[in-house]
Design brief:
The structure holds three protein chains of three kinds. Chain A is 34% helix and 13% strand. Chain A has helices at residues 23-30, 86-93, 103-116, 122-128, 140-156, and strands spanning 3-7, 10-14, 49-52, 55-58, 71-73. In chain A, α2 (86-93) crosses α5 (140-156). The N and C termini of chain A lie far apart (44 Å). Chain B is built from 15 helices and 28 strands. Chain B folds into three domains: 19-28 and 443-544, Aldehyde Oxidoreductase, domain 4, CATH 3.30.365.10; 33-131 and 187-237 and 243-276, Aldehyde oxidase/xanthine dehydrogenase, a/b hammerhead (Aldehyde Oxidoreductase, domain 3), CATH 3.90.1170; 148-182 and 280-440 and 551-695, 2-Layer Sandwich (Aldehyde Oxidoreductase, domain 4). In chain B, α5 (210-220) links the parallel β12 (200-205) and β13. By secondary structure, chain B is an alpha+beta fold. Chain C contains 13 helices and twelve strands. The longest helix of chain C is centred in the last third of the chain and has 23 residues, at 342-364. Classes of the chains: A alpha+beta, B alpha+beta, C alpha+beta. Chains A and B meet through α1, α2, α3, α4 and α5 of A and α1 and α14 of B. Chain C: Keywords: Oxidoreductase.
């Protein structure tokens, strides 16, 4: 089947999509957007987190057909041209990135958290990011990055 | 003592050079490498644990539109060699025998991965089932002593008269400790893209070592190593499981031979990882400690029973930690294996030390309780003057400082040792301590080159990889200091067998080996071309072992502290704080290093409370073979984990003065948590993980 | 790629007809469970009828009190709804304890109710499972069953229902509105789920083609004093070992009404009628801040320590009554090889939740 939806602001169509395919597969294999990662395929790690109609979701569990007419934003769509989003900047600065495989999902989820709650408490951050598993960092630098991004975002407003 | 390089860039918290590509989603991992017109693979796995394939029917699968072919043992290209020894793990699709459940017995080659997955489901297999056995126990009658254990250690050691010392000791602690089968579970599942053309085999692989992949695969495929190229610019974690090629690499190499030059892509699924990319063996460990009433050890027994697969022997060096850690005059260590019909075990972060230190360091806590001694003081009292195993002095052993500094920062002095004495808001609180250790490992066979480019920058090449540890950044810092230039003038090239031979990123020894080679190359370059080279000037260097290695025992050490809360009603365990203090030689990059320490400690927390693969003896498979059921710590499980290190360099180790940092953070962490749980509840849990059910009486 | 047809439903009745008329058809909500099952081979439909776009995405007050929750309302929206938070805290808490934010952003009301068990043998098509393939046997019964049922199980199946939300809805006496081939009907949630018996393949009493359109919550003043407590190993993002949903009403120093349900113990959310009966009339002996608030519940996990002596010495008759009520409910519990801990854990959690509610109730009087 053909599926048409908006990705990072641009309307795209893909053909010959199998009905059981996931949004993650469509993004990675058919649209050349490798940012969202495939690490568990069952919503248990958050590495594939993308925005769907403004809410972060696990792209591995969204059937391709369900995306018809909707709006998807991936980690590739967060930077403004060459300028990183403050969340992306903070992840680099704080050393919140190690192997980087969980990073895109964490950045989208953090971006969504700060949009909804600009100044979250530590406990809120930890719970909001509990669906994004990381095996390298021990999460501490990720927490620092979220705090830094939050302070920059609120400071910028 | 080697001549060290002057630290200008080293020691600075340089931001990760690969950070930007990773946060925008553009760093290419193995599966994301751009290749033309690829085909996709999906393996077929055995659903019996032992037996023979009587018939395998691929007709339905092959008739599916989009399927190119299905390879099985009947039609797969033949591998070269005799398939013995360690190659038995890689002897894929070469015979009809099934050695463990989940073994690859076929592979579908198709136009899309979804077609391949569906077709794999349509392959029909008839088996002749043979009895299988996957159950480890200490009283099996077929336990055997391997010739050596991992990393070349002796299987058994005996010093003094342990039996007499235990019999005479006024205080004896003698218990059995268990650690479960565990899985590395890097976030990036193993993946490989293989291209087989006139030039040979090219493999984009998620690996900890491009050269080890080439070295192992080239002879199997009957290729000259020069005709095998392995590329790995970015790797999503490994923790040991990507330290050597596994069956999926061979599967991809076989499939790539039958596609007329079209690339093949294989992404191992999370579930498949529980069968084919290694795991940490379960262990059953007896620790016997004999001590004087003042806590001084007179005897130390560490006897280990663990499993290996029947096809490849892997013997975890679990008891080696007890050979050098404490000054007990009488010591005995043993390793015994049960060869079972299980997937092939392999390295997982701090193999040997991680499970071994859990047992030893919980036992030490039990001894502290038995002697009425503070557990920090007990460890300090048993500090050896020289390495008890080799008799050589340590190049640096500031264990006591780590313990004291950690105790000071953790507020240990106000600790009341009474167990189960602190109930606050329904939670029982406790604190625990454990020691950490990890050997300084120097791998051989490393080379690097330095080239001066027309742009005035120094290009530095070595086939190292960055599995998330920070190689891109830290090795650039070392190169800059070796050349005595700013980091901006260095352009590092890694992750490719076209670059000089490099050791695997493992044993916390990657940076030591690669950095030594880079220093060698830089020195050769300066010697040849001086401070004002011309474009195109190039020199190569190697990484010789430090002359001091013969005279000194080299280890990193640390002390781990944990604060736990255990819910008095439900048994839920939370860890509000962990602190690690380490002595590791020089730290090249504090920003990347801190995250590695904290990450390893968190893996230790995860080991303490969550991680356990459950083997079902009837089927022979890991029941909880996904991230939904094999739990690793989430962000919400971590509250305050911090790591610090003593300021130092170890010039005896290598020209950078480093000893390695990747693994020590997990060693002892689980014991510190277990000891804190005992302090909180009075319940001594000797088998990991510590789950609420084990606290109910 | 298994041949699979996908249709987006535009009309509820036609959706019902489409599924009811085709044995291999399934409704697709958000897909958080079904899309996983497609990959695992646990579900093998030949038609997916996507009902997530049907106009069931509203939360509306009902005349005469209560709420109507549309079947397609996202779990995250439901948990955040002011009326839910204010009048049914047990529901908001249960929702927020489930899965992860990303999954709650997808998951729907109906999909949450109809999610399948996470029994690992059910999820693994290479092992026998009566729920997935009737007649093949139950692998968990003699296998790894640490997370399995202690109440209401059968020799054919020992799986537990995984939903947190459904446990909360069970204490709220929610009603499930269903559109079937024969028209609309209402099923009390306490009658929606089945015990496994000899047909563990059937989780609910729904017929093939029945479409859940909404969940109705009754106006229930006592639900404002309600709570959900989920016990799990990880601090987040794990299914319950045991959970308790409860609401309680106190008048003149005694419990006049109580509703309690357990999660993680059975093939369905387990409404604890026996415990409720035992709770009615229990004297709440403690004033705010006195020993009731201080007392640790039931059996502390670490016998011999301060929890069972020291601070716990002031155990009150109320706590003993709570414990007795839990024991009444759990008297029929039958542990398997690996899950005996669930019984004391459930009892302790029950007492902890009730004690917390009574303390809260005392504080508001």
């Amino acid at each position: 089947m053909r599926v048409t939806f908006t990705v990072n602001g641009s309307r795209e169509s893909v053909d010959d999509v199998w009905e059981g395919e996931s949004l993650l597969y469509v993004l990675r294999e058919r649209m050349g957007l490798p940012g969202a990662k495939n690490a568990c395929e069952q919503g248990e790690c958050g590495s594939c987190t993308v925005y769907l109609d403004g809410a972060p979701v696990c792209a591995c569990l969204v059937a391709a057909g369900q995306v018809e007419g909707r709006e998807v934003r991936t980690v590739e769509g967060l930077a403004d041209g060459g300028r990183l989003d403050p969340v992306q900047e903070a992840f680099v600065e704080c050393g919140a990135v190690q192997c980087g495989f969980c990073t895109p999902g964490l950045i989208v989820q953090t971006h969504a958290l700060l949009a909804r709650r600009p100044d979250p408490s530590d406990a809120e951050i930890r719970e909001a990011l509990a669906g994004n598993l990381c095996r390298c960092t021990g999460y501490e630098k990720i927490l620092d990055a979220v705090r830094l991004a939050a302070s920059r975002k609120t400071g910028a407003e | 003592m080697t001549e060290t390089i002057r630290a200008r860039a080293m020691g600075r918290p340089l931001e990760r050079l690969d950070g930007r590509d990773k946060v925008v989603g553009q760093a290419p991992y193995a599966y994301e490498q751009q290749v033309t017109d690829p085909l996709y693979l999906h393996p077929v796995q055995a659903v019996i644990a032992r037996g023979r394939i009587n018939a395998i029917d691929t007709a339905d699968a092959e008739s599916l539109p989009g399927v190119v072919t299905v390879l099985t043992h009947l039609n797969a290209p033949r591998l070269t060699g005799d398939g013995d020894g360690d190659d038995r793990e890689l002897w894929v699709l070469q015979s009809d025998e099934v050695h463990f459940r989940g073994q690859f017995i076929g592979v579908v080659v198709a136009e899309t991965s979804e077609i391949a997955r569906h077709a794999a489901d349509l392959v029909r297999v008839e088996y002749e089932r043979w009895p299988h056995d996957v159950e480890l126990s200490a009283d099996r009658d077929d336990l055997y002593a391997p010739d050596k254990v991992n990393a070349g250690h002796d299987t058994d050691t005996d010093v003094g008269d342990v039996a007499a010392a235990l019999a005479d000791a006024p205080v004896v602690v003698d218990h059995t400790y268990r650690t479960p089968m565990e899985y590395n579970n890097p976030m990036e599942p193993h993946a490989t893209v293989a291209v087989w053309d006139a030039g040979g085999l090219t493999m984009y692989d998620s690996t900890q070592g491009v050269h080890v992949v080439r070295q192992r695969l080239a002879p199997l495929f009957g290729l000259d190593p020069g005709h095998v190229r392995v590329v790995a610019p970015h790797v999503g974690g490994g923790f040991g499981s990507k330290g050597a090629p596994h069956a999926h690499n061979v599967l991809a190499g076989l499939a790539a031979q039958v596609t007329g030059g079209r690339p093949v892509k294989l992404a191992v699924t999370r579930q498949q990882m529980f069968s084919v990319v290694g795991h940490r063996t379960p262990t059953i460990q007896r620790i016997g400690l004999g001590a004087e009433t003042d806590g001084r050890l007179t005897a130390l027994v560490h006897e280990v029973v663990e499993h290996t697969s029947r096809i490849v022997e892997y013997a975890e060096q679990t008891a080696v930690v007890s050979r050098m850690m404490y000054a007990a005059p009488n010591r005995r260590t043993r390793h015994r294996l049960a060869a079972l019909d299980v997937p092939v075990p392999f390295w997982m972060r701090a193999p040997g030390e991680a499970p071994g230190a859990f047992a030893l360091e919980v036992a030490m806590d039990e001894l502290a309780v038995a002697c009425g001694l503070d557990p920090v003081e007990l460890r300090i009292r048993n500090e050896p003057d020289v390495d008890p195993e080799s008799g050589r002095p340590f190049s640096g052993r500031r264990m006591s400082e780590c313990l004291r500094e950690g105790a000071r920062r953790f507020g240990w002095e106000s600790r009341d040792p009474t167990p189960a004495a602190r109930l606050r808001d329904g939670w029982l609180e406790g604190t625990g301590v454990a020691a950490s250790v990890y050997p300084r490992i120097m791998q051989t066979g490393n080379r690097a080159w330095v080239r001066y480019g027309p742009d005035g920058r120094y290009e530095v090449g070595i086939g190292a990889v960055d599995i998330g540890t920070g190689t891109w950044t830290a090795l650039t810092q070392i190169a800059a200091d070796a050349l005595e230039v700013p980091v901006e003038e260095v352009r590092l090239r890694i992750g490719d067998t076209d670059l000089p031979e490099a050791a695997v990123a493992g044993g916390s020894g990657g940076l030591s080996a690669w950095g030594s080679a880079v220093v060698g190359a830089a020195r050769a370059f300066r010697e040849k071309f001086g401070r004002h080279p011309s474009a195109g000037d190039e020199a190569t260097g190697t990484a010789p072992e430090s002359p001091a290695a013969e005279d000194f025992s080299m280890y990193s050490f640390g002390a781990q502290f944990a604060h736990v809360r255990v819910h008095a009603d439900t048994g839920e365990i939370r860890v509000p704080r962990m602190l690690g203090v380490f002595t590791v030689g020089r730290v090249v990059n504090p920003r990347t290093a801190r995250s590695q320490f904290v990450g390893a400690m968190t893996m230790g927390l995860s080991m303490a409370l969550h991680e356990e693969a459950v083997l079902d003896p009837r089927f022979g498979h890991v029941v909880n073979h996904d991230l939904a059921t094999y739990h690793i710590a989430t962000h919400a499980d971590v509250q305050d984990v911090d790591a610090i290190w003593l300021d130092e360099e170890d010039p005896r180790s290598n020209p950078m003065g480093i000893r390695g940092i990747g693994e020590i953070g997990i060693v002892g962490a689980a014991a510190a948590v277990a000891n804190a749980v005992h302090h909180a509840t009075g319940v001594r849990v000797r088998d990991l993980p510590i789950t609420p059910d084990k606290l109910f009486h | 790629m298994r041949p699979l047809e996908y249709r987006r439903a535009e009309d509820p009745r036609r959706a019902v007809t489409a599924v009811a008329g085709r044995p291999g058809a399934m409704f697709l909500g958000a897909g958080t469970n079904l899309v996983d099952h497609l990959k695992l081979g646990v579900a093998r439909p030949d038609l997916l009828v996507d009902v997530s776009h049907l106009p069931y995405d509203k939360i509306e007050p009902r005349p005469g009190g209560g709420l109507r929750i549309g079947a397609a309302v996202r779990n995250s929206d439901l948990a955040a709804h002011p009326l839910v938070r204010q009048h049914y805290p047990v529901l908001a808490q249960a929702l927020l304890s489930g899965a992860s934010p990303q999954l709650r952003n997808l998951a729907t009301t109906a999909g949450n109710l109809l999610q399948r068990t996470r029994c690992p043998y059910f999820q693994d098509v290479t092992t026998p499972c009566n729920k997935r393939e009737p007649g093949t046997g139950c692998s968990a019964l003699e296998g790894y069953n640490r997370e399995h049922a202690v109440l209401g199980a059968s020799e054919h199946c020992v799986a537990v229902h995984p939903s947190d939300m459904a446990v909360a809805l069970t204490v709220l006496d929610a009603e499930v509105r269903v559109l079937g081939s024969g028209g609309e009907r209402t099923i009390p949630i306490t009658e929606l789920y089945r015990l496994p018996g000899d047909r563990p393949d059937r989780d609910t009493v729904l017929k093939h083609g029945d479409l859940i359109t909404a969940v109705d919550l009754p106006g229930l003043p006592m639900a404002a004093h309600s709570a959900y407590r989920k016990v799990r190993e990880r601090a987040s993002y794990a299914f319950a070992l045991v959970s308790v949903a409860a609401a309680v009403q106190v008048r003149d120093g005694a419990i006049t009404d109580a509703r309690v349900a357990f999660g993680g113990l059975a093939h369905k959310p387990w409404r604890a009628y026996r415990a409720e009966e035992a709770l009615r009339g229990v004297r709440v002996s403690a004033a705010p801040g006195d020993t009731l608030a201080e007392a640790t519940t039931a059996a502390p996990i670490a016998a011999g320590g301060a929890a069972s002596t020291g601070e716990n010495a002031g155990g009150t008759s109320t706590v003993e009554d709570l414990r007795a009520a839990a024991d009444a409910e759990l008297a029929d519990a039958r542990p398997l090889a690996h899950n005996a801990f669930k019984i004391p854990m459930a009892r302790n959690t029950f007492v902890a939740v009730l004690r917390g509610l009574l303390r809260e109730e005392g504080a508001t009087r």
